[in-house]
Amino acid sequence: MNYLRVVVVVFLLGPYLIMLGRGASGNQISARRVINLAHRQSAWTPILQTSANLSDIRSIRSFFEFRTLDPEGTIFYGDTKEGKDWFVLALRDGIPEMQIGKADILVSIKGGRRLNDGAWHLLELRSEGKFVVLEVNNNPELVVGLRSELTEDELTGKIRLGLGGMLVDKQKLFNPFQPDMDACVRGGHWLNLSTLWDTDPTWDPRPCFSEIKRGSYFPGTGMVTFNTSDLPGVKTEEAGITIQIFGSWTGTLLSLQSTDFEYVLGELDEHTDVKVQMGLKEGSETAALPREPAALTFNILKHSLVVNSKPDRETESLDFFSMWKKGMLLTFGGVPGESEDAKRSHHLRGCLEKILVQEQVIDLDQALYKHSTVSSHSCPTEAMNELT
Asked: What are the Laminin G domain coordinates in residue numbering (predicted)?
């Protein structure tokens, strides 16, 4: 089993083993509280779900406040007939999108204002006969009409609701999307239900920041790993591969690993002004950064690594271009496989406002592995200013 495969297995089994340790079911909470839709391992399963008899429902109407900087992800889901008829509200490019499956009909419609501006918006979803209506801040944004000879006008049985995920197979989607949603919901009124909702056992309930700005927030407890073969590659040998990072941070910024090579880019220790040593393999390298970085450029050339235009590692025995194309682990925020003590001491803490690889913005939701504590698209305006 090769190095990448071992690391991936560890990443994937870790959350599963944790889930086994605390039981297969989550807790129950009120869906009217402030809810952070992020911070869980299962991307498609709702973080909260509930069900009710349709005979108890007086109005097919739900409204809630919603805030995000994330351009894409799942917000709200509902179905009847155990998923035969279903509905999902999501964002794509920051714009609301509704997808509906009913009898022989599949519908996808997108439109209205962008909602990923970091402001709170009042969203209302309601059914008006054969129409589904989405209002944003009391203004109708999307209206979808459905008619089929196979549909039933009278609804019976149960209705299921979910937040931040779906209860049907993603293969049923008319237009696939990335499900992870870094967003907050508050003040929800879900139909006329007052019951507690079941939580996903992999969801890590966390407070919502009172004020947010764009970026990816690392609280000092987790990391994000990409396989370099999934990232943009070499355009020209002269230019190499460029990684640009903007923000403010402390701790380990990034690490680059393959079967027989490991390189770590971290800060100077605040007490000793020496390079942080992290128990690296023989022949590996550790580089140091200033304490208050605002931007960093990391260049990978065929036989050298360059930090802020200064050569940091040179070798004729390694071809970094071939290694990048074949697949290395590029990790932001830590070093996969290091000891627990090192993780606690050196994990990245701060806000990475933007990460560019070959001038393309990198979305952490597309990573091979992302720790549940890392916020992909939002940072607190003040690191410790959180809304409980």
From this structure: 36-379
Q: In this structure, are 39 and 94 located in the same domain?
A: yes
d(CA 229, CA 258): 12
Buried b or exposed e, range 203-237, using 16+ CB within 10 angstroms = beebebbeebeebbbbbbbbbbbbbbeebeebeee
Structural domain containing residue 350: 216-387
Element (H, E) at 122: strand 121-128
- Taking residue 123's Cβ as centre, other Cβ atoms within 10 Å add up to 21
Cβ(148)–Cβ(105) under 8 Å?
yes
Could you read off the pLDDT of 195-235 as tens digits, one per residue?
899 999 888 888 999 999 999 999 999 999 999 999 999 98
pLDDT tens digits along 254-284? 999 998 899 999 864 443 332 333 333 333 3
Residue 20 lies in a domain: no
Q: Tell me which residue of 289, 287, 306 sits closest to 298, measured CA to CA.
A: 306
Q: Is 256 within 8 Å of 263 (Cβ atoms)?
A: yes
Place of tokens 């806000």: 351
